[in-house]
Write a structure and sequence with these properties.
heterodimer, A: mainly beta, four-stranded antiparallel sheet, 0% helix, B: mainly beta, six-stranded mixed sheet, 12 strands
Chain lengths: 114, 113
């Protein structure tokens, strides 16, 4: 039972390159989230998905796209990476509720854009 | 829109001392409040949560938190800190009408022997 799995764990990109961060969960949760964590900024919500086939913008969506093709997987894509996107990215999942359910996090992807 | 403020960026305590980490929230209705802990290089783990009822909630690892509506606060406490408690702590708020979870900026706890 892996919970929430993120790949890759580390990545270095050149400015302008594209890449996709993968997240998969085996917890049968409907809701999935992408956050970025930056020093002094805490975790900021990029996108979230309440269910398969639906996505919504969070606090900082610019420069990112997401895809929720099935219940298990929620990917985050950087089409043209910028140094400002250097960060640690976390995927999270939770059961849907009225805001009162616990979120479970992956181990993070540390991305550096040079 | 909901928001969370953690006024202390960095706190240092001696092992065995008591601890209080501050969290203030902004939300128009009854909030759902959480404290998470992040050890170095790790993801986030839930310490405790408040939804309703008793305003003093107990969590894992000996932590507790008290919800004070009049002060819009949800401070985390521990009576005696252990060196293994050194980590970053995040307060978060969820809302009734969305499924978003909004985090504060975090407090880094350092524990001296």
């Amino acid at each position: 039972n892996a919970g929430v799995t993120q790949t890759p764990k580390f990545q270095v990109l050149k400015t302008g390159q594209s890449m996709t961060l993968q997240c998969a969960q085996d917890m049968n949760h409907n809701s999935m989230y992408w956050y970025r964590q930056d020093p002094g900024m805490g975790l900021r919500l990029i996108y979230y998905s309440a269910s398969e086939g639906t996505t919504d913008k969070g606090e900082v969506p610019n420069g990112y796209n997401v895809s929720r093709l099935n219940k298990r997987e929620f990917s985050l894509r950087l089409e043209s990476a910028a140094p400002s996107q250097t960060s640690v990215y976390f995927c999270a999942t939770k059961m849907p509720g009225q805001g009162n359910t616990e979120a479970f996090f992956g181990q993070g992807t540390r991305l550096t854009v040079v | 829109a909901q928001s969370v403020t953690q006024p202390d960026i960095h706190i240092t305590v001696s092992e065995g001392a008591s601890l209080e980490l501050r969290c203030n929230y902004s939300y128009g209705a009854t909030p759902y409040l959480f404290w998470y802990v992040q050890s170095p290089g790790q993801g986030l783990q839930l310490l405790l949560k408040y939804f309703s009822g008793d305003t003093l909630v107990q969590g894992i690892k000996g932590f507790e938190a008290e919800f004070k509506r009049s002060q819009s606060s949800f401070n985390l406490r521990k009576p005696s800190v252990h060196w293994s408690d050194a980590a970053e702590y995040f307060c978060a708020v969820g809302s009734y009408n969305t499924d978003k979870l909004i985090f504060g900026t975090g407090t880094r706890l350092q524990v001296f022997p």
